[in-house]
Amino acid sequence: MAGAGASGREKRATAARLKAALSGGGGESGAAAELQALLERALAPAPGGGEAAAEALEWCRCLLSGGEPWEGFVQAVRAYDPATLCGLVWTANFVAYRCRTCGISPCMSLCAECFHQGEHAGHDYNMFRSQAGGACDCGDGNVMREAGFCKRHRMKSSSNVPCVPKDLLMMSELVLPQFIFSLIQYLREGYNEPALDLPSEKDLHRILQMLEPHVSFLEDLTKMGGAMRSVLTQVLTNQQFYKDLSSGVGENACAKKSHEKYLIALKGSGLAFPEDKLACGMQEQASGTSTLAIQGLAGATTTSGQGESSDEEDQDGSQGVGKRKRVKLSSSTKDQSIMDVLKHKCFLEELLFWTIKYEFPQKMVTFLLNMLPDQDYKIAFTKTFVQHYAFIMKTLKKSHESDTMSNRIVHISVQLFSNEELARQVTEECQLLDIMVTVLLYMMESCLIKSELQDEENSLHVVVNCGEALLKNNTYWPLVSDFINILSHQSVAKKFLEDHSLLVTWMNFVSFFQGMNLNKRELNEHVEFESQTYYAAFAAELEACAQPMWGLLSHCKVRETQEYTRNVVRYCLEALQDWFDAINFVDEPAPNQVTFHLPLHRYYAMFLSKAVKCQELDLDSILPDQEMLMKLMIHPLQIQASLSEIHSNMWVRNGLQIKGQAMTYVQSHFCNSMIDPDIYLLQVCASRLDPDYFISSVFERFKVVDLLTMASQHQNTVLDSEHERSMLEGALTFLVILLSLRVHLGMTDDEILRAEMVAQLCMNDRTHSSLLDLIPENPNPKSGIVPGSLSFESMLSAVADFKAPVFEPGGSMQQGMYTPKADIWDKEFDPVMVILRTVYRRDVQSAMDRYTAFLKQSGKFPGNPWPPYKKRTPLHPSYKGLMKLLHCKTLHIVLFTLLYKILMDHQNLSEHVLCMVLYLIELGLEDSPEQESDEEDSVGEHERCHDSWFPDNNLVSNMRHFINYVRVRVPETAPEVKREPPASTSSDGLASSQSPRRSKSLQRENSGTAQVFSLVAERRKKFQEIINRNSSEASQVVRPKTSMKWSAPGATPQLTTAILEIKESILSLLIKLHHKLSGKQNSYYPPWFDDMEVLIQPEIPKYSHGDGMTAVERILLKAAVQSRLNKRIIEEICRKVTPPVPPKKISPAEKKTLDKEERRQKARERQQKLLAEFASRQKSFMETAMDVESPDADIAMEIATSEQHVSEAVYDCVICGQSGPSTEDRPTGLVVLLQASSVLGQCRNSTEPKKLPTSEEEQIYPSDTCAAVHDVRLTTLQRYFKDSSCLQAVSIGWEGGVYVQTCGHTLHIDCHKSYMESLRNDQVLQGFSVDKGEFTCPLCRQFANSVLPCYPGNSVERSLLQCHSNKSMQDLIKEVEELQEQLGTFPVSISSETNLSKEMESVMKDIKSTTQKKYTDYSKTPGSPDNDFLFMYSVARTNLELELVHRGGNLCLGGASTAGKRSCLNQLFHVLAMHMRLYSIDSAYNPWRKLTQLMQDRNSQMSSEELPEVPVLYRDVSSLLLIQILTMPQPLCKGYNLRRYLGA
Question: Do the Cβ atoms of 755 and 806 come closer than 8 Å?
Answer without folding.
Answer: no
